[in-house]
Amino acid sequence: MAGQSDSHLSLFSPEEVEFMAEDELVEIVPNLRMDSLNFICGDYGPFYPQIATQVPLWLAVALKKRGKCTIRPPQWMSIENLTRVLEGERDSHAFQPLPFHYVEISRLLFDHAREDIPDIYMVRSLIEDIRDVRFHKVETNLEKFTASTVTWKNMSAMEVNIIRAFSGRALQAFYKHENEHMMPDTDRTQDRQPQILNAPKRNLKPR
């Protein structure tokens, strides 16, 4: 996986970020009875028709592709909530609270469960607007970046991934610059030291 050699400065690819997002839990409604499914990551089920249950997103997509369930969009994807978030993003310099993987979750649901999302075109438009406003904030914050103002909260995985390399290198540059002022000038220090190494020895007379 990318980033193992230097996790502080490297970037994850969009595919890797999406892969991590697939572990997020979502709610499904099975349309058939099925025994429990046992995986290394955990056990899910048993499943009963029309009884909602939570499973990882990757499992929900797999069952959806096989026609065995519908996927319930998370509450944060409602038009009312997204409209409120978009207004908050536009009216404030701060990032509004959203799931860490909101970009990846919404993309996967748009790709694999579009018929399960009411008013999908409006939902997609709102999420794209939110993402654009937040990315503009990221660019603005990078222009004002200093070592003493790293206080960004509520950023998503994709947004963190965008600024990760830049902020890591910038902090290293700030640290190096500040340390140069703190380090003593070795040449001047040596000049100020008394030159006693080559001084002639003084013979003391016995009393």
UniProtKB/TrEMBL annotation:
A Pfam family that this protein carries is Sld5
Q: Where is the GINS subunit domain?
A: 76-169
Q: Which SUPFAM superfamilies match?
A: GINS helical bundle-like (SSF158573), PriA/YqbF domain (SSF160059)
The DNA replication complex GINS protein PSF2 N-terminal domain extends over: 13-71
Q: Where is the composition biased (Basic and acidic residues)?
A: 181-191
Q: Which UniProt keywords apply?
A: DNA replication, Nucleus
Q: Give any single GO term for biological process.
A: DNA replication
CDD domains assigned to the protein according to its UniProt record, in alphabetical order: GINS_A_psf2 (cd11712), GINS_B_Psf2 (cd21694)
Note the InterPro entries from the entry: GINS_A (IPR021151), GINS_bundle-like_dom_sf (IPR036224), GINS_Psf2 (IPR007257), PSF2_N (IPR056784)
Q: Where in the cell is it found?
A: Nucleus
Could you tell me which Gene3D superfamilies the record lists for this protein? Answer: 1.20.58.1020, 3.40.5.50
Query: Which family does the record assign?
Result: Belongs to the GINS2/PSF2 family.
Protein name listed in UniProt: DNA replication complex GINS protein PSF2
- The annotated region (Disordered) lies at 181-207
GO cellular-component terms in the record?
GINS complex
Q: How does it assemble?
A: Component of the GINS complex.
